[in-house]
Amino acid sequence: SFRSYGVALPQIVANWTYSSYLYSAGNSLMTVAMTIVTLIVARISAKTGLKKTILAGLVIVIACDLLTTIAPNMIVFLLIRVLYGVGCGLICGQELSSLNLIWPGADRKKWVGFRGVTYSITNIIGPTVAGLLVDNFGWRSTFFTIFAFHVAGLIIFALCCPKDTKNRFYKDTPFDVSGCVSFIIFITVATLVCTMGNTLGWGNPLIIAGLVIIVISLVALLKIENNKESGALLPLDLFKRNSNFTKLFFIAVFGCIVNMAPVNFLSLYMQKVGGTSATASGLPFSLIYLVTLVFTFAISRIKGLKPKKVLVFSSFVCMIVIGVLASWLSP
User: Fold this and answer.
1) Residue 151 pLDDT grade (very low, low, confident, very high; cuts 50, 70, 90)
2) Could you write out the three-class secondary structure of the chain?
3) pLDDT, tens digit, for every residue of 251-299?
4) What is the percent of the chain where pLDDT is above 70?
5) For residue 144, how many other CB atoms are within 10 A of its CB?
């Protein structure tokens, strides 16, 4: 749905007056909402149960699918997208956790692999189908289609997920309220400052005030989390104990930066600047995930290949592709 949303977005905002920084901030805040909720839910889902958590997320997402189709202006539309991020946050972090509870270790690898293949196939089909829907039936048809799939997912999950998905080894610990507040302030203000810095100017008093708040909230967050013996919102002890976790964290951060920028802006650029159809703007995403699926399968068949070499090679290829794309798309 993220890719389909990106393809449909230029048609959604075509008749609305909006500024580029508002568009960017709205998209970023949706991801911020998802990040915040994912972190919080990771601490409470063991007590509430994964099934209830994911079902609540699906209900919110489904409601947002319908609300999006009747949004009267850009502000309301972006607020709905932020709420959509809350629903996704309830789902995303818990999805893989549910596999650990539903299937034993012997079967888990098979189902994780099946999930990966399914995810890739939907990303291959989704953007192009969304483009066809937008071009032929209007952008609302995309969200009605997504709505149908989300409803089907809710029904299937409600019927197939075991009733008891609580963590039997859960120990009740005080919720990290101070850490949560510090993190929300830090990530929200940082997103807004990074989004609007170039537009307002980095010497603008609002931007300077935002930078000060970022520093203060980050220092407070690190101090609070470092002093927590248990129940910390952020697992800082993992960075201290496990260097591999630290490396994977930074790989994930920079990988997401590269991945999310095209999702939010490539289709908009192709349709608004390049004058292409919605279908054509969805094709690059379909091709990217098709190559990803083929490459992943091919790599898995090569015996004795070290994961580090694969990561370095794939990162190098990504840099070349991004560089060529940027040169080609630059006005």
Assistant:
1) very high
2) CHHHHHHHHHHHCCCCCCCHHHHHHHHHHHHHHHHHHHHHHHHHHHHHCHHHHHHHHHHHHHHHHHHHCCCCCHHHHHHHHHHHHHHHHHHHHHHHHHHHHHCCHHHHHHHHHHHHHHHHHHHHHHHHHHHHHHHHHCHHHHHHHHHHHHHHHHHHHHHHCCCCCCCCCCCCCCCCHHHHHHHHHHHHHHHHHHHHHHHHCCCCHHHHHHHHHHHHHHHHHHHHHHHCCCCCCCCHHHHHHCHHHHHHHHHHHHHHHHHHHHHHHHHHHHHHCCCCCHHHHHHHHHHHHHHHHHHHHHHHCCCCCCHHHHHHHHHHHHHHHHHHHHHHHCC
3) 777 766 666 666 666 777 777 777 888 888 777 777 777 777 777 667 6
4) 70
5) 14
Contact assessment for residue 73 and residue 16, using Cβ atoms and an 8 Å cutoff: yes
- Report how far Cα 108 is from the mean position of its chain's Cα atoms: 24
* pLDDT for the residue 243: 77
Q: Record the tokens describing residue 329, joined without a space.
A: 């798309």
pLDDT at 61 over 80: yes
Average pLDDT, the chain: 77
Place of tokens 């091709």: 287
Measured CA to CA in angstroms, residue 150 lies from 228, 323, 325 at distances of: 38, 36, 33
- Cα 23 to Cα 281: distance, rounded to the nearest angstrom: 19
pLDDT bin (cut points 50, 70, 90) of residue 300 is low
0.85 cut: is pTM over it?
Answer: no
Answer yes or no: are the C-beta atoms of 42 and 182 closer than 8 Å: no
CA distances from 311 to 289, 295, 303, 314, 316 (A): 17, 12, 16, 5, 9
